[in-house]
Amino acid sequence: MDIPTAYYLLLSFVLFLIGTAGVLLRRNALIVLMAIELQLNGGNLALLAFARELRDQKGHVFAFLVIALAAAEAAVGLAILVGLFRSRESVNLDDATMMKR
Amino acid sequence: MNFNLGLIPLLPFLGAAVLMLFGRKWSRDTVFIVAALAIGAACIVAIDGFFFVLPDAGPGGLSDVVMTWIATGDLHIDLAFRMDALSGVMCLVITFIGFLIHIFAAGYMADDPDYARFFAYLNLFCGAMLVLVLGDSLPVLFIGWEGVGLCSYLLIGFWYSSTANADAGKKAFITNRIGDFGFLLGMFLLFQYTGTLSIPEIGGAAGLTKTLWLGQPVAFWAALFLFVGAAGKSAQIPLYVWLPDAMAGPTPVSALIHAATMVTAGVYMIARMHAVYLLAPAAMAIVAVVGALTAMFAAIIGFAQNDFKKVLAYSTVSQLGFMFAGVGTANFDAGIFHLVTHAFFKAGLFLCAGSVMHAMSGSGDITIMGGLRKKLPWTHGVFFVCWLAICGIPIFSGFFSKDAIIAGAFSTEIFGHDLAWVGKLVGVMLMLAALGTAFYMSRLYFLVFSGDETRASEKIKHHIHESPPIMTFPLVVLAAGATLVGFLGLPSGLWHHPEQNLLYHHLEPVLGPELEVSHSTEAIFMALSTVLAVVGIALAAVFYRGGYKEPARAFGAKFPGFLRLVQDKFRVDELYDAVIIRPVKAFSRGLFRFVDRIVVDKILVEGTGAIVDVFARLARAVQGGDGQRYMAVFAVGVALLVHFATQPTLPFTKLKITQTGRAVEVDARRSKTAPTRDLDYLFDFGDGRPLVKAKAGEQHHDYDRPGTYTIHVTVSDPRWGTEDGFKEKVEVQ
What CATH number corresponds to the domain at position A40? Predict the structure, then answer.
């Protein structure tokens, strides 16, 4: 039995939505980073679903690219987080409002 | 004929520039030599041009086009100079007397710390005046006109550290500006109606086609506006007030302003523009009457002034009135003649004043003078000659020129039948003014020079000395001039040899034929003038010979109010202050308080700031620095973008239906052009017939029966699987 593409897309959308909610609502920077991963994975899933639907390998390639990007982003993000923690002794995003100045 | 006329003003300008740039470092002798050389060389060039080249030149005189100045559309103005007999005579007077004043100033200003600046300004002044005189078109003349205004400001306020002097400079400048405004209006008016600003061309236009372009009103207004300018520059009622205050400047400056430059500009300009004036007898009448009034009014003020230079200042105003009366009665030659003689004797008188003040430790108060005849023999001699000249004693120059004006006023016919009385009136006023002149000048002479005792303090008396030769030399030359210049304009018509009147003979090609004065008139007024002069002198002798005499004191005691009024110069300055200056000041203050403080400062400046502030507050609320909030905004933005970018069908309110009879055209397209995507349309016309499926958004349908139908259109996008439905009711008859 073939699972319809729409289901994949739905799951991808839900994943992305959960990720977005996490980014916007959570205050812990670590959790926010994880939520970003969720968003990226939601995107990945959509890419793969379309690739499967359209029988096109390009989608798979693109998904790999996104995974690599996610790894890099996590590395940079964690580094920033460490820097933030060193200066503020906190990873609460409400304390990180330096962009105002 | 070409001649390097540009050199005449250029030399003094060069001198001024060099002295301003380097003069401060140079020794006094060097400064003086440069300044005197500049004006002296200009004098030599002028003499060369006037005596050796001009006689052989054609009717246009000498001309020199330096360069094209303005060329735009129909307007073409050259920086051009022209010397004919009139401007030539003026040039000689300016450069020669200017030169003598330079020499005198070397002695007079010997101890002044700002020696170089003074001579730079003197040179600049002469240069500007030469531009004025030689200018071939009104704009070039106007450069010189403004130039002398500027220089008078600089020189009157030369000792600027005293507020009174600086104020006098400002007063001169501002009063002149009022006149200049009139002059500009006159210039514009002439350009409007003649299309040219060149003086010979305006003269030609006036002469040739007067019925065509210069109807009486235009000529009248142009002449009147120009006269306003002349009244400002030449100190006539009502703009004369600056000249007496101009005494704040150093005495050589007063001499320069009063004799050679500046104040003669107005008279010269009217003589230059005589072609326009001759077309407007009414304007001439105004000029003549204002001149005569000024002559009388200033002479009366002169009766009671106690400052040496103030007396001379009012005397200048009065004599300028004579000149205006002369040109105003179409007696242009006589006006210019008096200008020339006046230049000599007034320069002499002023330099005498300088010499006397030099001797009196700088004081110009004639009430403390007296008995200077023996102590200052040279100065006394020169003053004596110039005094006789200005009073109009025969043989001396003033006699001839003043008599020519008075006799001319009685015999002029320029005013025509209706205004014939103007000439007589002006003549009578001038005779009274001449009597007044003789009186106040003699008062000055007797109070200063006659008697045995000087009424000053011992300290001043101790210092009294004759001036050094560098000051007395120019005095003697001027005295010789004041005696002899009159013979240039001998009334030789009396013995039937008009050509012996050298000045008139020379001026005739420029100013037109001499005014006809019958022999008997000439002779009568010569005798009358002499009598008046003698009476004036005699009266003054009774009052003031050897100091204040009993009749003078008795007169003063009898009319103390009148005396005070005259001493206060009829309180004209106070009148202007109350009527013009204070209202203007109050108005300005009001503008400052309302427009500047409220409209500009509060509303425009602070209002702009407040608006920026409000928006900044709004923007600041969004910019919290909280990254998550930024992301939320970003997410909303992206969601909106995606929503609108992927809308399968754009919302629109109703179908477009066109009915013709029973035929119906339905248009379900979103825009007039074809849809960008492939859409499916399903038309249900509501009359029971099969639905129509189409790729195109337009559909035609014919109803079989009348009735009310509902048209349903369903639009679907096969790619997205979305659809949108519309319905509309139609009535079919």
Answer: 1.10.287.3510
Amino acid of residue B347: A
Distance from CA of B675 to the nearest CA of A (A): 26
- Select from 3.40.50.2300, 1.20.1250.20, 3.55.40.20, 2.60.40.10 the CATH code of B656-732: 2.60.40.10
The candidate with the shortest Cα–Cα distance to B130, out of B12, B38, B25, is: B12
**Helix (H) or strand (E) run with residue B709 in it:** strand B707-717
Q: What value of ipTM does the predicted structure carry?
A: 0.78
The whole-model pTM stands at 0.74
Joined tokens for residue A85: 């923690």
* Contact between chains at B628 and A100 (C-beta distance less than 8 A): no
Q: What is the pLDDT of residues B300-345, one digit of tens each?
A: 998 888 888 889 999 999 999 999 999 998 888 889 999 999 999 9
Cβ distance B624 to A100 less than 8 Å, yes or no, reads yes
Is A100 part of any domain? Answer: no
A96 touches chain B (CB under 8 A): yes
Neighbours of B583 (CB within 10 A): 11
* Residue B111 to residues B19, B103, B108, B115, Cα–Cα distance (Å): 18, 15, 8, 8
Write the pLDDT tens digit of every residue in B13-38.
Answer: 999 999 999 988 888 889 999 999 99
How many structural domains does chain A have?
Answer: 1
Reference B59, options B78, B82, B81; nearest CA is B82
Crossing angle for the helix pair B377-391 and B469-484, nearest 10 degrees? 20
Give the burial string for B267-300 (b: 16+ CB within 10 Å, else e): bbbbbbbbbbbbbbbbbbbbbbbbbbbbbbbbbb
Residue B135 backbone zone (phi > 0: left; psi -120 to 50: alpha; other: beta) = beta
Is residue A9 exposed (0-12), middle (13-18) or buried (19+ Cβ within 10 Å)? middle
Helix boundaries (H) for B157-280: 163-194, 199-208, 216-233, 242-245, 251-255, 264-272, 274-278
Domain of residue A71: give its range.
5-94
Domain positions in chain B: 586-646, 656-732
How close A72 comes to chain B (CA, Å)?
20
Nearest to B443 by CA among B321, B295, B307, B570: B307
List of chain B residues whose C-beta atoms are within 8 Å of the C-beta of residue A24: 628, 631-632, 635
Q: Once rounded to an integer, what is the mean pLDDT over residues B251-271?
A: 87
Integer Cα distance of B360 and B449 in angstroms: 13
Task: Give me the helix-helix angle, B85-108 and B115-134, nearest 10°.
Answer: 170
A101, part of any domain: no
Interacting residues of B284 by C-beta distance below 8 A, sequence separation 6+:
B223, B277, B278, B328, B329, B330, B414, B415
| Average pLDDT of the segment spanning B494-503 | 73
